[in-house]
């Protein structure tokens, strides 16, 4: 086919999530529930960090940014997915797909930088507690977050721009429930090797370096925890670190499976859709609970918030 005479596709068709016939309403309810939990859990963290001065510390600053990222990440595709279930129309316009892809990866890549910042803060707080306030100043934290968001933007913008300019002549059916790089390149015409190589390079540099830094940080944290004289403090710190690493491992393992592959054209994305559910649905819901469930400061903040609400109602 002569790709130079190929007209630009105006819309794509998303295959969607695998679903057993007759269980569409169950799928819709499950997705809606997970999305609601994500908005409530992450929104609560953001609100508490903004309104409670006791939580205006580096750790919670990073957690509020992670919560904002999780809300943005899921919002890029879940509302459209829910709308598709209601309307039975799985189409998405070309530019809507490009915008979805851009923001999806902006939030996704930024998450790794934020997780790295959280591990750095935990390392300094536990291994060098006396120097924590002088190292992790508000200026340093702000610079780390700005670097995370700019790093996420520049990691994906060139790849997205090249994808937007590819011809799509042979098919407009995307074998996924959102516009992902792999399934989109699968149906693209022209030479996609440069885009695939760029995407693979970004995945290796961002994901692998973030994982290595995070693991090294938690290794030193665990070494410090094991040297603590108090057994109760050891158990609490150890259980907190393990719970953090469980969520981190779910994220990294699923991303490794989906994105760390050198070729896309001959790949099948049927299994990828199942794995994608881990980091697109499950991880954003787990993050606010895992990072705060054993945190007494967050529990105290919730009590203070409830107390203010009760007092306000009594004064009405």
Automatic annotation (TrEMBL):
<feature type="transmembrane region" description="Helical">
    <location>
        <begin position="92"/>
        <end position="115"/>
    </location>
</feature>
<keyword id="KW-0675">Receptor</keyword>
<feature type="transmembrane region" description="Helical">
    <location>
        <begin position="135"/>
        <end position="158"/>
    </location>
</feature>
<feature type="transmembrane region" description="Helical">
    <location>
        <begin position="26"/>
        <end position="50"/>
    </location>
</feature>
<keyword id="KW-0812">Transmembrane</keyword>
<feature type="transmembrane region" description="Helical">
    <location>
        <begin position="197"/>
        <end position="222"/>
    </location>
</feature>
<keyword id="KW-0716">Sensory transduction</keyword>
<protein>
    <recommendedName>
        <fullName>Olfactory receptor</fullName>
    </recommendedName>
</protein>
<feature type="transmembrane region" description="Helical">
    <location>
        <begin position="242"/>
        <end position="260"/>
    </location>
</feature>
<dbReference type="Pfam" id="PF13853">
    <property type="entry name" value="7tm_4"/>
</dbReference>
<keyword id="KW-0552">Olfaction</keyword>
<keyword id="KW-1133">Transmembrane helix</keyword>
<dbReference type="InterPro" id="IPR017452">
    <property type="entry name" value="GPCR_Rhodpsn_7TM"/>
</dbReference>
<comment type="similarity">
    <text>Belongs to the G-protein coupled receptor 1 family.</text>
</comment>
<dbReference type="InterPro" id="IPR000725">
    <property type="entry name" value="Olfact_rcpt"/>
</dbReference>
<feature type="domain" description="G-protein coupled receptors family 1 profile">
    <location>
        <begin position="41"/>
        <end position="291"/>
    </location>
</feature>
<feature type="transmembrane region" description="Helical">
    <location>
        <begin position="272"/>
        <end position="293"/>
    </location>
</feature>
<dbReference type="InterPro" id="IPR000276">
    <property type="entry name" value="GPCR_Rhodpsn"/>
</dbReference>
<dbReference type="InterPro" id="IPR047132">
    <property type="entry name" value="Olfact_rcpt_6C-like"/>
</dbReference>
<keyword id="KW-0472">Membrane</keyword>
<keyword id="KW-0297">G-protein coupled receptor</keyword>
<keyword id="KW-1003">Cell membrane</keyword>
<keyword id="KW-0807">Transducer</keyword>
């Amino acid at each position: 086919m002569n790709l130079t005479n190929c007209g630009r596709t105006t819309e794509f068709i998303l295959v969607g999530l695998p679903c057993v016939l007759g269980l569409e309403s169950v799928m819709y309810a499950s997705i809606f529930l997970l999305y609601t939990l994500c908005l409530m859990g992450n929104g609560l963290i953001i609100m508490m960090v903004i309104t409670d001065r006791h939580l205006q510390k580096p750790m919670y600053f990073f957690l509020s940014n992670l919560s904002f990222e999780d809300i943005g990440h899921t919002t890029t595709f879940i509302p459209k997915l829910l709308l598709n279930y209601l309307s039975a129309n799985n189409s998405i316009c070309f530019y809507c797909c490009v915008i979805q892809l851009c923001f999806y990866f902006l939030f996704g890549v930024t998450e790794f930088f934020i997780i790295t910042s959280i591990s750095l803060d935990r390392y300094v707080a536990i291994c060098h507690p006396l120097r924590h306030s002088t190292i992790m100043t508000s200026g340093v934290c702000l610079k780390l977050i700005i670097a995370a968001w700019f790093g996420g933007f520049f990691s994906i913008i060139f790849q997205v721009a090249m994808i937007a300019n590819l011809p799509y002549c042979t098919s407009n059916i995307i074998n996924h429930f959102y516009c992902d790089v792999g399934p989109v390149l699968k149906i693209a015409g022209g030479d996609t090797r440069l885009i695939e190589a760029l995407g693979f390079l970004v995945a290796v540099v961002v994901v692998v370096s973030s994982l290595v830094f995070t693991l090294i940080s938690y290794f030193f944290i665990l070494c410090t925890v094991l040297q603590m004289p108090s057994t109760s403090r050891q158990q609490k710190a150890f259980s907190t670190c393990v719970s953090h690493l469980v969520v981190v491992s779910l994220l990294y393992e699923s991303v490794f499976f989906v994105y760390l592959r050198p070729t896309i054209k001959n790949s099948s994305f049927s299994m990828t859709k199942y794995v994608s559910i881990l980091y697109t649905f499950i991880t954003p819901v787990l993050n606010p609970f895992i990072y705060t469930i054993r945190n007494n400061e967050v529990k105290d903040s919730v009590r203070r918030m409830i107390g203010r609400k009760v007092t306000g109602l009594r004064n009405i």
